[in-house]
What we know:
- 38% of the residues lie in helices and 26% in strands.
- The protein folds into 2 domains: 3-124, Homeodomain-like (Arc Repressor Mutant, subunit A); 135-288, Regulatory factor, effector binding domain (Multidrug-efflux Transporter 1 Regulator Bmrr, Chain A, Alpha-Beta Barrel), CATH 3.20.80.10.
- The chain is of the alpha+beta class.
- It is built from 10 helices and 9 strands.
Amino acid sequence: MNNFCKIKDALEYIENHLDEPMSFKKLAQKFNFSPYYFHRMFSIIVGKTISAYIRDRRLQLACIALTTTNNPVTNIGLDCGYDSAQSFSRTFKQIYGISPSEYRKQGLIPLVLSVDEMILNFTNKLKGGIYMNPKIKQKDSLIIAGTSGDVRYIGTPEIWQNFESLSNKTPLVNKICETGYEVRTNVVTDGEEIEIVYTGNAVSNENVDAGYVLIKLPASKYIVFDVIIKAPDIEGGERDFMYDWLKSHQEYKERLFDGTRYLIASYDERYTGAVDGAIIEYWIPVEMK
């Protein structure tokens, strides 16, 4: 089961056990996560910590019961997982600013999202950015001319700097457009998985200066994500969560090229540098399951 689905299952489990004691460590163990990774993933997807989510969910149910039933306040608190009327009233007033009895008099009913609605919202949330309506698109084959590097020895920013220096010195005369491409490939060498990064521009043919490295990618369907970055970090958990999203898709799976995994980042006119609001378009190659 992939991590995205396990978070969904964890949310459903919490929903069905709100009247019971829960801790994030026990939840992590139940769904085979390390406590740290579970807490991190949960916070990213849901938008709050596990303890805060459980607290808020219990209080939301209490609000509904206060408004729609005549049950005593004490019973409502106990039914929603609090061990005493005092702890329920204290937490309720801390969050809502009024007592449960005062809330009941106002007759308010909170808007409570279902688990499915929260998971749907994940397609519009991401650490470091926001997914905006991921789509399946057909893309033509690409020839990218630029520079490359093994990320064990050189960082991605330096690979881009090398490309910029080279292109300033020896401009690409057959460049198709100004869009910059970053291709991340994972190859296995001597049993070790190595990530090689290519940066550059798309060109119309292979007639380029000998200083350039070429990578040729086939025509393919891609799942395309627009990611709004939050400066200064654009190397966060985006890729992990995009792949988790894909694993939950019913029709498509990741497509390899000659047994190699690759991901394309497209830096078009919407990318204005590593600043808030800049957009990077990510492509993951896919095929039908």
